[in-house]
Every structure is written in C-alpha cells, then in structure tokens.
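INFO  loader      accepted 1 record
INFO  loader      residues=139
INFO  predictor   begin
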Amino acid sequence: MKSFTAFCFLLVIGILTVTSTETQAQQLVYTPINPSFGGSPLNGNWLLSYAQLQDNTKDPSAQQQTDPLADFENNLNRSILNQISRQITQQLFGETGLSEGQFEFGDFSINIDQTLDGLNIVIFDIITGNETTIFIPYP
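INFO  predictor   done
INFO  writer      dumping tokens
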C-alpha cells in the first residue's frame, strides 16, 4: 500500500512538472474605472453614489435647527449695539453726519475727504501702520 501511494505521489509530481513548463505568460492590462482617468462614463454615477454613501461629514450649508430664544437674544444684542453706535457717531460727527477732516480715536487716525465722485474715508492704524480705504460713491 505504501508503494502504491508513493507511486501516485511521484506520478502527480511528474505530471505537474511536465505541464508547468508548457504554461504561457499573459500580459496584464490596466483599465481605469474612474471616467476622469479614462474609464467608462457609465461608472460615473456608481462612483458618485458610492462616495456619497461613505461621506460622514455634515453639510455646513444644510439648514440647522436653531433656538428661537437664542435668535431673539442675538437680534436684541445687535439692535442695542447698532443704537449705541448711532449715538456715538452722532455725538462725534454731529447731526450732519460725517464731515471732512482728520479724526483720531485711540490707535486709529481717520481722514475723511469729499471728492466729486463720492466720499473717501482712510483709516490708518497708528501702531501697525496698516491703512484701509473706503470709497462711498454718490448715488
């Protein structure tokens, strides 16, 4: 019995050796899947839906549930700050509003000039040296 199994084993090894030399190589060819890289255009919808399935981030432009009380508080704060800024502007520049000249507030120097085209406001930060120009055209 042992000789028969040894014979079968040697026979299988011989057959594998003979047939393995007759195998031929084949060239592998890569075909892209993504249509952006030359793949089939029919794959586009599948790739997009698969990517959207994996996306677990939230859309910042999506509507979010807001608290009406928090909205009311924010609106009230804005309204109070707007009123305070109007009062300060009126105290600084009078009832006529902005007038020509140079004004200094803390670390800022503001130069207001009226031109033929509109109002030119230059805000200069004395500490950093940065300058901002605002032009308001006449209607």
